[in-house]
Structure formats: structure tokens, C-alpha cells
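[job 4417] fold queue: 2 targets
>>> target A
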Amino acid sequence: MRQLNVVDWETRRVPAPDDLAGWQLLRDAQLAQQTGPSEQTAAREGVSLTDLTLGGVPVLEIGPTAVSDPRRVIVYTHGGAYTMSSARSRLAAIPALANATGMRVMSVDYTTAPAADWQTIQSQVLAVIQALGEQGYAPEDIALIGDSAGGGLATCTALNMRDQGLGSPGAVVLWSPWADLSDDGDTSVTLRDADPILSYDYLLRNSAQAFAQGLDLKDPRVSPVYADFDKGFAPTLIQEGTRTIFLSTSVRLYRKLDDAGHKPVIDMYEGMPHVFQDLSIPEAATAIGKSADFIRSQLG
């Protein structure tokens, strides 16, 4: 688990969207800083970490201390604004979730932007899903979970599975999902100075453009809050705090799912920042426990 560090984005501007070398340098520095503590979190939880390849895509398997349900599996798409982090550097709350569910977690180590665009990244996640299908996992045996950009990616994955005839996952869990790449929604304005972690102007805009690579940022293929959910969607839990600029996006996504008749669950936490599940606080333990309960109830 990490401690909350307030980010001074005024002094930490990120590279231009197409600056491949600049993003690589920034990501390398971040991985050097975060991978060790991430692996230490896994060690404290007692989980195993195994590097695999599924469908030609690198995957990190997080094995719980006791696998109580080998017939089910969780696929995790990590956050990092699509441009940073890796499966090993973004473990955070996932080891605790693996132990709470008793299920193996496959963290997709997708290629980050701008080295890969949205189509390539989404295709890599689908390749992992299809490889699990070849191992005998039905779509309803798979839960998708993602945080931040990974939450947007998990949402797009469920939509892509539906639209490509691959079925529907048994459950989708979204922790503060970045489901709108544009700077839209009420709290993108009202909480701009209250969010201790995120900045659209200094981080997210360039990351969004690096990922979309010319696509309109409100295109539903990259911003799933604008997608059509009337054709079906999996049971969904959205967890969010009240001190993040993504708050409105989470509410809007909830409304889209609810209006389409899918009965999503939105689980809100007073005063919590972006992806607070990673923090060493009681609210994080509560949220992880509720996420595990939701997955077990839907896949059981």
C-alpha cells in the first residue's frame, strides 16, 4: 500500500503526446521508484508473483495465499494514465484483493502509450481474455477490474467482448475509472484545486492524446462514458471518492449503466482521493472487501 503524496504538477510537466523518448524516460524513472515498494506489498500479503505470457501478451499472475476458487479468474488492467506504470509497479491493492477473493489475478502488462495506441492496447487485453478462454474459462468465469486508466480500459474491454461476440465477463469492478479522456464533467472544474493527485492540464491531457493518437477524446472507443450500453453490459461496481476530478465521470458512467437497465452499484467514500484503495487506511480495506464480495457474488 502507498502513502498519499500530494503532487505539485506545476513543477512536473509531462512530455508532449508524441515524444516517445520523453515518455520512456519518465516511465523508466517511475518504474525504478515504484516497482520495489510494489513487490514489497505483495510480499507482505504473502501472494506469489509469476511472469506469464497469454495470447502473446506479458502477464503477471498474482496468486493468493490460498486459491479457494480455481474455476474463476480476475483480469486486472492497471492504471497509470495509459502512459506509465507496469504490472509489477502497479500491484498496490491487488494482492489484498487476490487474498480476499481466493482467486488468481492476471495483471495485463500492456504496452503503454505512445509506444502503442488505443487499438493495440485494447487488442492486447482481448488477447489475454481469449487465451483464458482457450484454457477453459468461460466469459462468466472472468471478472475484470481496473483502476484509473485501467478502469476505462476494463470498461472498453467488456464492450469489445460484447461487440466482437466474445460474451460478457461475470463482473466488472472499476476503481475511479478514467472513462472520459476529455476534460468534461462538473468536478473537472469544481474539484480542480481540491484533487491532491490528478491534474488534467499537467498530466492527463498529454496522456490522453498519446493514447488516442488522433482520435477525438470523446470517441466512445477511448472514452466509454459515451458508449452505447443498451446492447448489454456486465454487472458493475464503481468505487469512487469525493476528492477527485473523476467523481463526475464515475457518476455519469453509473447513470449510463443504470439508464440502460443494468443495475450497477456505485460505492462512494467521503473525502477519499483518486484510487484510495491503494492507501493504508481503513476506507481502503473496506473498499477492497466490498470489491471482493461483489466479485464472489457475481461469479459464484
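>>> target B
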Amino acid sequence: MSPRPRLYLFLAGIAGLVACYLWAFGGMPAFGHYPGPYGPAILRAAIAQTHATGVVSAVNFEYRGFDTVGEEFILFTAAAGLSVVLRRLRGEREGGRAIPDADNSNKRTTSAAVRVPALLLAGPTVLVGWWLASHAQTNPSGGFQGGVVLATAFVLVYLSGEFLAFRRLSPVALLDAVEAIGAAGFAAVGLTAVIMGLPYLYNFIPLGQIPGAVSSGGVIPVISFFVGLEVAAAFTAIIGEFLEQTLLVRRGA
């Protein structure tokens, strides 16, 4: 198919998607007028049942935890699929990776106005991401948000012109292992409940004495931690694969 028909097909698909979104938005209730019974019921019961004041995280990791497992593995599969495709395009072989010579050539185009703030913000970004991933039970945060922020810290290192440092801080083998641990850890929490004779992802850890405390929430902070690991590793791996592929293209490989 030539580029022009592909463009027309793409525009037709986008037009259909926009039409469906507008149709869906037109049927939504007005802001503050939620008609369903589930939201108010969860708001009344969530804190007492989970000791988590971050009710959104309680919903994600407990009330609809099985759906969240599926969402996490969608990201895991996407990252794995992208890595397999791009690494094969770069000529990866068993026992080694065909990586281009890294030369930090992008330093020539990185101004001090970008380099200095990026390096200064990398550390605080890691701190914020870790806080978000570890406080899902207390605040509107969680592993998904925290993982994305943690991955952003690695992007800041790259934006500062330090491609070699980015690669050293995010080796492929380590990222793959962390991503697998995060995804498997989430599933293992649910399987542990099953082994104990409880429903999958049942909150079997003590909830803590004080609702909203860091030590409260039972399995919610544990799941959020594993989700943060998986999301951070997946996004960092995806970004790294794209950067290496871009470097190969720029060098004419």
C-alpha cells in the first residue's frame, strides 16, 4: 500500500475514534452527579475495610485487583514485545548484543540551560517517584504513578547529554530482571492468598492500627511497591530501546 492510501486509512480511523469518544462523552453524567451505586458504597466502606485513606489505590489493588493484574501484564507484554523486535532489528544474537559504539555525540547539542536543570532534577525525581510508589495507602498516589516518575529520572539523565551514563544506570539485564520481579511479585501476592485458602488478592496482611498510616493498608503498599518496580523498569527499558535504535539510525547502521 502506498503512503497516500495509508494516510487516508489512518485519518478514517482517527475520525471514527474521535466520533466514538464524543458519543461516549455526550452520555456521561454531569460533574459531581455520579449515578452509580458502587462509588458511594466504596467510599463508605473502604477506609474501615482496608485502613487505606488512598481509596483509589484501595480500589485498584484490592476491590478490582484482578483487573489491575491484567493491566500490569499488558505493559509487561508490550515492553517485552518491543524489546524483542528492536533487539532483533539491531542484530542481537544469543550470547551478546550488537550495540553501536556509544560516543556521547549528543553532548554537542545539549546546552547548559538543559543540562544543568536536568541533572539537578534527577535526584529529586527519584525521591518523588519512590514516595509515590510507597504511599499508595495514604495519599492519591500508587505504583503506576511512582513508576512513571522513577523512569522520568533516567530520561533526565539522557536529556542532560549523558547517554553513556544512562546506559550504565539502566543495564538491559538488570531492567529485564526488575521488570520480571515486579510483575511476578504482584501475581505472587495473590497466589499467596490462594495458598492460604483465601480468595485471590485477599488482604491477608494485618491492616495496621491507624488508618492512613504508612504501615496501614495490608497488601496494598506491597502490591504498589511491585507495580512501581515493574512500571519503572518497563518504561526505562522501552525508552532505552528507542534511544539505541535511534542512535543506530543516526549513525547510518
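[job 4417] complete. Note on B: Residues 219-250 form the longest helix (32 residues).
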